[in-house]
Automatic annotation (TrEMBL):
Domain of life: Bacteria
Compositionally biased residues, Low complexity: 472-484
Biased composition (Gly residues): 485-497
InterPro entries in alphabetical order: DUF4178
This protein's record includes keyword tRNA processing: no
Organism annotation: Comamonas flocculans
Keywords: Membrane, Transmembrane, Transmembrane helix
Disordered: region residues: 472-497
Span of domain DUF4178: 68-202, 277-415
Protein name: DUF4178 domain-containing protein
Membrane spanning stretches: 441-466
Amino acid sequence: MATSQQRHYSAPCPGCGAPVEFLSAQSSYAVCGYCHSTVVRRGEVLARVGKMAELFEDHSPLQLMASGKWEGTAFTLIGRMQFRGEEGGWTEWNAWLDDGRRATLGEDNGAYVFTQPLQPPPADLPAPEQLGLGARLTLAGQRWSVAAHLQAHLAAAEGELPRLPPPGQQFLVVELRSDDGQVLSIDYGGTTPRLEIGRSVQLAELQLKGLKDASLKQEQGRHFDCPHCGAPVQVQLQSTKSITCGSCHSLIDLSGGIGAELLSATQQAGAAPLIALGSIGQFEGVPWQVVGYQRRLGQEPDDDEQFGWDEYLLYNQQKGFIFLVDASDGWSLVRPATGAPKLGALGAAASYLGMSYVRTSGYRAETAYVAGEFYWPVERGQQTDNVDYAATQGKGILSREKSDKEITWSYGSRLASATVAQAFGREAEADKFKRDEVGPFVASGGSGCGLTVLILIVFIMVVIMLSTCTDGSSSSGSYNRSSGGSFGGYSSGGSHK
């Protein structure tokens, strides 16, 4: 555990008498670990202000008193708040740094963001109604894009807390992203808005110690009867917000919890996916389990014909979720983007994390069939406006999805079909994975295409030049929900033609 020169404070809980300890001088509230009384510290006296609801099991590897390092400074996790929003929940861990500062480790769907209070807060902070989805603005000397508006409430908490929103009371959070991957969260729940700024992290990067022992985890899932046919349905992941019945293929909404009224929508059984649910594939040096599958359809403007592609939702406990996309022009592995790519003139070009992209297509996408579990509420017939980009060098891809509530960016790279077959140990069936694979977006030779390539290169150069004169007024962003909770929003992560 991190050490500090600060004086620790302990006093008996006014509810049950058990000791309640404060490690950080910045902690004003705490939740008694014995009787769940919520207490506030007033000088040397603790006053009981209510009782906190039980925490819901989120199968997180984190726990109180786990410690690590952030940019060379040791920290300890001393408190946890669990929030519920319109589309699901996330957790904020109160981190006490060894030098006396406070930070937040946001956790949602296996993704993490480390943030700290923005000091001093901007004097010219706009009202939330002035921060429309996709708007661009400058705050604290940084250019941002508005990614989402979210109504949320505190559901449960434990340990030491720097603040305590009234449980169950709704508050507004506005999320902003920068083109270098930073996250800015504005909490409008108090009399004075609270701002936190940070970036995404991997748990390994934080050198964490004291994590939960995986052998002690009881991930036996939850059970309920299908509201349509009555067959038993088992939920494996705590983060699941949608699931399909294995018997009647109904799509079931779990966003209100299993104890709430379950809503189901019938759908005809689709063709069996090439990669079965539950399969394990090796990507990026770690195993990923296939937990969800979507069949999606797209249609370009002024085109009567639709095209289709498949998306597999993959899960790893330490790394969260990624998408394996199977399209007619090849396979790709993508993940939700933390930041907001910078757009050029008319959105014809984009740049993100040092890579340049050119727009390849724009279309309306629709979810046609769903199977498995998803961390966002999936509906058959859900529609988004999609734009795809290809890297000007290499195999990189970038994609933007816009719904009524959010803008989600995803990025990744194309994969060779043989790589996908090998990842799932199906080399003997390599022919089933073959696609009309498209190579990197590069200027190729040939007597018939020289002029076309030259025109395209000139066009890209003009777009890049124009992009330096505009900050990209087109919408851009990604959904992160309160001090860095979620990285990807609730749209799909693939959206590739």
